[in-house]
Amino acid sequence: MSQIPSRAALAAKFALAFTLAFPLAGLPGLARAAEAECAQIKINPNPVLDPLEIVTAKGVLAFQVEVARTNEQRTQGLMCRKTLPERGGMLFDFKVDQPVYMWMKNTLIPLDMVFIRADGSIARIAAMTPPLSTETISSGEPVRAVLEIGGGEARRQGLKAGDKIAHPMFPAK
């Protein structure tokens, strides 16, 4: 959900390796740790939603998304959410083109991560990212933004690399 600080990334990779080596003991521990951290995270019950459209080969899809514009909002992302509405999600504005690295720490539901170039075109989609994982998910190239939607939503809606995002963040040309 957020860009990973290097020390945290190393610690997280060690924890994940341990968890994968001992899956029966590790997963409940990760869930308990997430539950404890989530108890301290405030989720806005009435977030401001922006309309966002995705132009696909099959037509235009309308979404309603929260926009993470500040470092604090980008860091929290969709952590601790138990549900996400169909055609809902969160758009992360990184303000400049850059390689982006995300993770799913304290994220309780699977997500699809849609990496978006400055021109609004989809660079790549990381589908069904696993909940509670600290594995790094890379944009694969410099991007301006990331749209997180419910796990499997990209496939259900037929989203593909090259489709275009229409939102004020991406000026029309």
From TrEMBL:
Signal peptide extent: 1-33
Keyword Lipid metabolism in record: no
Pfam family, one: DUF192
UniProt KW DNA-binding keyword: no
Coiled coil: none
InterPro entries for the chain: DUF192, Saro_0823-like_sf
Protein name: DUF192 domain-containing protein
Originating species: Xanthobacter aminoxidans
